[in-house]
Write a structure and sequence with these properties.
Blueprint (H helix, E strand, L loop, with lengths): L17 H17 L3 E2 L5 E3 H7 L5 H6 L2 E3 L5 E4 L4 H10 L9 E10 L11 E10 L4 H17 L5 E7 L6 H12 L8 H9 L10 H9 L9 H16 L5 E2 L11 E9 L7 E7 L3 H4 L7 E7 H11 L13 E5 L2 H16 L4 E3 L6 H10 L4 E5 L1 H6 L1 E6 L5 E5 H8 L1
Parallel strand pairs: 1-5, 7-8, 12-13, 12-14
Antiparallel strand pairs: 2-4, 3-4, 5-6, 6-11, 7-9, 9-10, 10-11, 14-15, 15-16
Length: 419
Amino acid sequence: MTHIRAPRGTIDVFPEKPGVWQRLEETVRSVCRNAGYTEIRTPIFEHTELFQRGVGESTDIVEKEMYTFLDKGERSITLRPEGTAPVVRAYLEHKMWALPQPVKVYYIGPMFRYERPQMGRLRQHTQFGVEALGASSPALDAEVISVLISVYQRLGLEGFVVRLNSIGCSKCRPRYKESLMNLLSKHTDELCADCRRRLERNPLRVLDCKNERCAGLAKKLPPIFDYLCEDCSRHFEGVTECLTALDLIYELDPTIVRGLDYYTKTVFEVIHSGLGAQDALGGGGRYDGLAEELGGSAIPGVGFAAGIERAVQVLQDAEGGAIGQEAGRVNVFIAAMGDEAKLQALRLARLLREQGTSADIDYLDRSLRAQMKYADKQGVKKVVIIGEDELKGDYAVVRDMATGDQAQVQFRDLVQVLT
């Protein structure tokens, strides 16, 4: 009988890896809380219409990457491919506009896209992100960018670059799109099949195509800055002024447009060369028209999403793969010999855990020597030894594994000594 393997484009996170993930997630939560963001958790699946209307039917996500199926009630359901549209749906559904504005939330969770698996791109991947709804200030755009940068800086990550652009609004963007269509229509034979299709539906998408020939053409196209209306130009100037005030270094990149139709004005990406072709650690922008597309009133919004797997890869590469070794480590291991001693060890482990100290015991009936060897391999700080003599004397031997020093401690004092 053949073994069942994990589906293509998914990964198992092995015991030595969660330490990296937990460190990253804890950092995300800490940075977001400090900036006034609270956690939101939306369903893993939504009605397909949410992404068709919100993300855009001309996007790669909706056209060919969504996991969509009919449920038993013949309703079209889609596994969540991105986090912004569900957050805006929740904002509208639960009348969060009645709360003090802006509403600032963050999320951590799995996303699903049917893509060709490669380094940094999985069919099930995990994202963290923030969304700030209810304010149009360029300072909020800068804050969102600074939150993402703070996460990476707090983790000690270096070598990333912030690329910044504006894609205008519904007033000025059509004029730029028309210019792009006029210029690119003279080079349709040089475009890839996807970009030839995009040319009619959304020529902006040609700008961020990864095909070498398309990318070469994109570099020769005029940037959008000369086409921005007064409002968009003033907003973008405000964003750059705020970033400068925050001492955040950025590069203007007119090819950054993002792959979702809901973006307006500010768009940005944070890239890292260590990821190869798929070099984006995260990105986002402003989406002032999304709430209206989903049936609400005009609610401004801005946010970002970032891949956890990509960040973990960069962190492990930077630290030689060592940062995951803390996963599962306990502070105290109780080595017991004999049935009565094992019961005492079980009770002691529970008491220590209740006091907030991580503790473990042997479950394989190993010899004392084997238990000590196991504890050493696990990087345990202290070992409590309980045997027949210890039980008779109502004490245990506590050994410091770093120094080798050990002392006898009365059972009644063990919890206090070890916590």
